[in-house]
Amino acid sequence: MTRGENMNEQANIKSAVKRPVKWRTLIGIALVICAIVLDMPILFGLLYIIWAIQEMVYGQAYILENINKHENKVLFWIIVLLWLGCGIYVFADSLIGNWIKPVREYNSYNNEYRMPDEEYENYTEIENGYLYTDENGDITFFPFADNR
Fold it and tell me: Which of 27, 67, 75, 69 is nearest to 47 (CA)?
């Protein structure tokens, strides 16, 4: 057998070896794509939490380089707690801010969101927001925070 034939045979053997499908990686990629396309930061929060749990299980953390739990305990736990804290924050903020919160109006006068107080009965709903008439007769417009 010549050297060229031997190399071709080795290449055929390598290409015939079946590599396992990396399902967790594919799921992670799908989560990132969904989070970006659907504008759902809650998926990033979930991904950060999963990263933190995996780092604790495997003893390896990663931010720009691998950090081994046994070689660098303090740095390892800082990274794990950073991922976990960010994940919980993003997850909770997305959950509360997008799905649990009541509808809030945007006050364009002082650039902040606020609920109209229930004690005010001077709100009139119009097509794209509320008109509020105060006791002096001044009218303030509150556009809807969400696109209805």
Answer: 27
One-letter identity of residue 115 = M
Averaged pLDDT, 118-134: 68
The percent of the chain in helix, strand and coil, each rounded to the nearest 5, is 50, 20, 30
Total Cβ atoms within 10 A of residue 90: 20
DSSP output for 33-45:
HHHHHTT-HHHHH
pLDDT for position 12: 60
What are the residue ranges spanned by the domains of the chain? 23-100, 106-143
The mean per-residue pLDDT over the stretch 91-95 comes to: 84
- Residue 37 C-beta-side C-alpha neighbours within 13 Å: 6
Read off the pTM: 0.53
What is the CA angle 142-98-88, rounded to 5?
135
The answer to whether 55 touches 84, Cβ cutoff 8 Å, is: no
DSSP 28-90: HHHHHHHHHHTT-HHHHHHHHHHHHHHHHHHTEEESSSEEETTT-HHHHHHHHHHHHHHHHHH
Q: Which residues pair with 66 in a beta bridge?
A: 62
> Are 45 and 88 spatial neighbours (Cβ–Cβ below 8 Å)?
yes
